[in-house]
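Re: that chain you flagged

S.,

Sorry for the slow reply, it's been a week of failed gels. I finally had a moment to sit down with the sequence you sent. For the record, here it is as I used it:
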Amino acid sequence: MDISVYEVMKSDGMTVGSTCYFDFDRSSRGYSGIMFEKGFFFLLVINGTARLSDIYGNYDLSRGKLVVLTPSTTSSIGHFDADFSLKIIYIVPSYFDSLPDGQPLYNQVARYLGNYRLPVFDIESERFSYLKQTMSLFGDRLNAMNVYHYGIIRNLCNFFLLQIADALCTENNDTTVYVKRENEIFRNFKKLLVENYRKHHSIGFYADSLNITTTYLSQSKRINFFL
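Prediction finished late last night. Pasting the structure tokens below so you have them in one place:
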């Protein structure tokens, strides 16, 4: 039977702050598939083969494949062979939105989502080994770092996201890596709005918080929709 990845990670994953790390090993699991939905998931296939599916199609997974799943997608992995294993990093969507280096990665996967395709990539061997090491850093040892716990997690997440974005720039050599200032402002505005919409209704408050003028803020068509 299929099982939600949340159930798997709740029982066997390593939760650190707003992230969770899990090593999935087919040989030790008794279910036929795992489902992914409503989250940012980063999957790196370590060994074996399986099939990733959503309502639009199927994708064959094998060693060296990287999959980036966003909250707007729902998919599942099944048809594992006996050797199948992968590393999984989950990042809470609201936390991902607060990370300054999430946008470069999102720029790289957006064209796939716009064409109803899941972002599935081949990672070259050197980048594969390095990414595998980085994902392992999300393990339980992070919980032992008490003094700078949240700063360490935040910087590790940003490094991880930029590492993936850098790798995908090679794959998507026609995709811009420039992050528009307007995109950054819009992401930060949405976060501010969620946190303050009950208390603050003035455009001046949001402009000051974003370090921009009220004129610049009021001229943004995307932001004007919310004000």
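What I noticed first: The radius of gyration is 19 Å.

Talk soon,
D.
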